[in-house]
Amino acid sequence: MTVFSRRAFATAVVALALSLAGCGGHQAGPDAPAHTPGTAAPSSRPAVKSVAALGRSVPVSLQIPAIGVDTPLMQLGLAADGTVQVPPIEAHDKAGWYRYSPTPGQIGPAVILAHVTVGTYGDGVFRDLARLRQGDRIVARLENGTAAVFTVDEVRTVAKAHFPTDAVYGPVDRPELRLITCGGPRGGDGYLDNVIVFATLAPANP
Description:
By secondary structure, the chain is mainly beta. The chain is built from two helices and eight strands.
């Protein structure tokens, strides 16, 4: 995992969840524990067969067969104001991997986000994210030619005001994945909720 500031990761990931352009929301600022080398806590996700973590390799694409997602992945960092960058609002939008989180398959929560809508262009990459169900597969293809295959454990729709920061990006002791977009009803500033998918790396030979 790339070495980075605990505070920067905590602040950026909260902002990532709450400040998706085109979805509404705002920058959040509370500090919270984040995954750093040498820190880990047991995951609250369902128990699975022991799976070996993968080496660090940048993800280049994401496929979610159950909802027809097949998207290239861009890398997202931090904007000048300290919030996380988000994919641009454009006709052929992409999902983005937050490059200060683990790469998919490393120990810890890899974070990927995309829009549910893209303004006048219509639906976004994660328009159907809330339809995912436990057991659905997510495939992150990596730069080194391997694929990190995850199994969905849980899908939550939560109010942005009560975003579960610890559950989303707190330290875990195995490779996990978080997919985040906006959802729920729309208010004056955009969507009021976040849709969050929690997934765990699947065994190579289940």
